Amino acid sequence: MSFVPLSYQISVAPQAHLFQVSLNISEPDPEGQILALPAWVPGSYTIRDLARHVTQIHAERNGQDVALHKIGKDRWRLAAGHGPVVVRYAVYAFDRSVRTAYLDDQGGFFNGPAIYLRVLGQEDQAHAVLLEGPEDWQVATALPRQSGATWGWGSFIAAEYRALIDHPLLMGTLTLLDFSAGERPHHLLIQGIHQADLQRLGPDLARICDWQQRFWGDAAFAEYHFLCMTSADGYGGLEHRASSALLCARDDLSGRNEDHYQRFLGLVSHEYFHGWLVQAIRPAVLSASALDREALTRDLWIFEGITSYYDDLCLRRAGLTTPAEYLRGVGKELTRLLRRPGRFLQSLAESSEDAWIKLYHPHANSANFEVSYYNKGALLALCLDLSLRLESDDGRSLDTLLTRLWQDYGRTGKALPEGQCIHLVEALAGPTLAARLESWLTEKTDLPLRALLAEMGIALHLRAACGPQDEGGQACEKTPPVWLGAHWRPHALGAQLHHVQSGGPAEQAGLSP
């Protein structure tokens, strides 16, 4: 590895679930270099307290210990002194999610913010990484490689710290699926037990990626990696530069259950769409953050809500679902919203601002007091799309707005200012629709979805739930039972409540989870 001012050497201890890290700092601040871990993970808006997994941290200079003082919950200061320093530490990795780190004897994954200490004041320097591990394991990452065989251990380089932490790594015995989309190489790498139908997945993923590249008209990456972990019933994704981290139930990949297979395709579609709407069209408030504290924004309805609208719409436009399947999905999305009394207590803008303390920390009463900017944001995007089409005789749509965002912000590299999207809607469709959009964001009322769909010739029917597993989206084939006003799950002693709906019979009877 050629000389780089900052370098990390990472090895694995699978049985202990530890990533062991040596950070070499060639020119630390002689007055006392400060080191820190991010407080939150880009794309996941809550304080993670990642430093709680750091252990055995110490520093050396020329073989002699250097005092390392903790000056905050996630930062340390080296004692003053001149000359290169090595900081050694371990990170406990046993969170099977896309946000932090996981390691066992079958493989592992890590997201950069959980592993890489930040050298304050030197974030703009190049950062190198040397990875070492079992010979029979493979490694997948979009981080530019300097040495080592493809999919093997070796050295990697990042131009600066934010680029470094935006390239997760997947390791272990990996299943590789290569495909091309838009004449760009794409790779799906799967770690974990699975029975993936690779012959079906390859063409389907290519259709998703092809459609999205044609939609945007350009791409900010030359090559793309989908890093996928499987588990019994996991689900989640996180967008990154030229890659995304995915977690799915292993059965989702087999295609035996069409709904589960489409759920995985929707996850892929969502994270890939973020390659433009988040990674290229960047929210100014979040991209300017030093990642050391919360950065409040009310614009997550754009970055997560609009993306959630397009993830399933992309499957329809790419020919992977039928119109009936797409509308069934819209029905399920609306059902989720209507089952949340919290939609009358929290606005969409408030949901975005409260993401740091609420969305990622659900509890038994969340549905009664909160609304999701993913869920209601997707339905607002549908309302905005229909409104733009209806008021322009189908001459303009939400596609038009996203094209403008790409031209003005994605291609130019400028971050999107807070609230600017409403001004763009006003420029496209006038002040009336812009004011309506503002009211949808700030008022605690239902969206006018029934009326807008009716103008498109689509009828919306509301009915009682057929049972606790009823997700909506289709007609009910049996007479709905008496409504309990609560959700429950089977228990050895009978039934256990896990959510009681505000104002319902169960609450009035004094029942609680």
From TrEMBL:
It holds the Pfam family Peptidase_M61_N. InterPro entries: Peptidase_M4/M1_CTD_sf, Peptidase_M61, Peptidase_M61_catalytic, Peptidase_M61_N. Residues 264-380 form the Peptidase M61 catalytic domain. Coiled coil: none annotated. It comes from the Bacteria. Residues 7-172 form the Peptidase M61 N-terminal domain. This is Signal protein PDZ. The lineage of its organism: Bacteria, Pseudomonadati, Pseudomonadota, Acidithiobacillia, Acidithiobacillales.
